[in-house]
Each structure stands twice: as C-alpha cells, then as structure tokens.
C-alpha cells in the first residue's frame, strides 16, 4: 500500500467526541490534513445496525471527497457492505488470513499488534500495515495493556523492513515525531485530535510535526 496514506491516521467513533457531531469533527480533521480515517464505534452508547451503517456511509462519502482512505474497525461485514477502503482488526477479531480472503486482495487490511511475533504473524497472513501499541499510556481503549514503548516500533521496523507501521496509544503532537523517527510510517490518534477544541488547527499542527519528522528534520 501507499505508506504515505498512513502518516496521520485519525480514529474516532461517536463515543469519542462528547456532544459534537462525528461528521463535523471528521470534516475538520480532513481539512486539517489527516491521511486515513478509521471509524471505531465502541463503548457505551455506540451506534449499531442501520444507524451504524448510515454513519459509515456518510463517513465514507466525506473521506472520498478528500481522497482519504476510509477504514472500518473490527466489523468486516460492515466494511464490505459499505464498500470501505479497508478494515482494521485486533488480535481478538479472528483469523487474519480469513479476513483477507473475505475482503479480497485490493482492500487495505490493518492489524493491531503488541509484539514482534504479532507483527510477523500479521505480515505473513496478508496485513498491509500493522498498528503497534499502546506506545504510551492511553485512556481511549479499555484493556489496552501496559505501554509497549517506542522501541518496539524500531524492532519491528528492523525485522520487517517492508511492513508499514503505525504507532498508536497516547500519541500527542509532541510525541509524534519520536514515533516516526523510530521507523513508523505514521501515527494513529484518537484523543489528541478528537478531544481538541479546534480540530482543524490541531490536526494541521500535528501534521506539520509528522511531515517534518518524516523528512528527517529534527524538531
Ligand atoms: N488501540 P489515543 S491504543 C484504539 O494499543 C487503540 O492497539 C491501541 O487512542 C493499541 O490516541 C488505542 O487517545 C487508543 O491514545 C488510541
């Protein structure tokens, strides 16, 4: 896949944005320069069924307008149904190779990993990229486990140089550059973007840090 699409990977669902509208937040983040969006509808009050499908379709349309890939978290059937650009699954979400079979070879498949072994298995089973985390403390994911540290990004990048990596978990604008310099193609974030008051401006600032780090410029 085109690694540059992973540079600033925004993840959100309706439970991450307080009383704001997800489409408004997404539009601001798209204007600010996110390069991928993942719909992750989880937790108390999460939408389901037709409501979730309608939201996914609207997110997809908005992402299409900005030529940004639209990824669905966990729900492979929903991803296929709405024609998402890809799906992202965790270690608990079933057989990676089976998911690849189901979505076909053209769709993006991302897998959450927490060790070198996880990353190798995901790569072998046909993942286009792996998420590695949590790199830092996070409150956005239940049972995220202890931080694995940014060293794991470097280790996986060394062992699997062809596998695009996205760092995740507790990443802020200040920490984003370090994650990129360890060898990640991009950073994935919920709260740093979703909880910000001015989503567009904050996104633009984070994008600036990531772009600078990607080009090897020290901040
Ligand atoms: N997955 P924030 S950490 C969705 O470690 C998710 O696989 C993680 O949110 C993993 O940017 C995480 O607010 C939460 O920390 C990321």
From TrEMBL:
All copies of domain Thiamine phosphate synthase/TenI, residue ranges: 8-193
Cofactor requirements of the protein: Mg(2+)
Amino acids binding 2-[(2R,5Z)-2-carboxy-4-methylthiazol-5(2H)-ylidene]ethyl phosphate: 138-140, 170, 190-191
Record-listed E.C. numbers: 2.5.1.3
Pfam families in the record: TMP-TENI (PF02581)
UniProt enzyme class: transferase
UniProt binding sites for Mg(2+): 74, 93
Reactions the enzyme catalyzes: 2-[(2R,5Z)-2-carboxy-4-methylthiazol-5(2H)-ylidene]ethyl phosphate + 4-amino-2-methyl-5-(diphosphooxymethyl)pyrimidine + 2 H(+) = thiamine phosphate + CO2 + diphosphate; 2-(2-carboxy-4-methylthiazol-5-yl)ethyl phosphate + 4-amino-2-methyl-5-(diphosphooxymethyl)pyrimidine + 2 H(+) = thiamine phosphate + CO2 + diphosphate; 4-methyl-5-(2-phosphooxyethyl)-thiazole + 4-amino-2-methyl-5-(diphosphooxymethyl)pyrimidine + H(+) = thiamine phosphate + diphosphate
InterPro entries: Aldolase_TIM (IPR013785), ThiamineP_synth_sf (IPR036206), ThiamineP_synth_TenI (IPR022998), TMP_synthase (IPR034291)
Keywords: Magnesium, Metal-binding, Thiamine biosynthesis, Transferase
UniProt pathway: Cofactor biosynthesis; thiamine diphosphate biosynthesis; thiamine phosphate from 4-amino-2-methyl-5-diphosphomethylpyrimidine and 4-methyl-5-(2-phosphoethyl)-thiazole: step 1/1
Molecular function terms, GO-annotated: magnesium ion binding; thiamine-phosphate diphosphorylase activity
GO cellular component annotations of the record: cytoplasm
Role according to the record: Condenses 4-methyl-5-(beta-hydroxyethyl)thiazole monophosphate (THZ-P) and 2-methyl-4-amino-5-hydroxymethyl pyrimidine pyrophosphate (HMP-PP) to form thiamine monophosphate (TMP).
Family: Belongs to the thiamine-phosphate synthase family.
Cited HAMAP family: TMP_synthase
Entries under NCBIfam families matching the protein: thiE
Name used for this protein in its record: Thiamine-phosphate synthase
Annotated organism of origin: Sporosarcina pasteurii (Bacillus pasteurii)
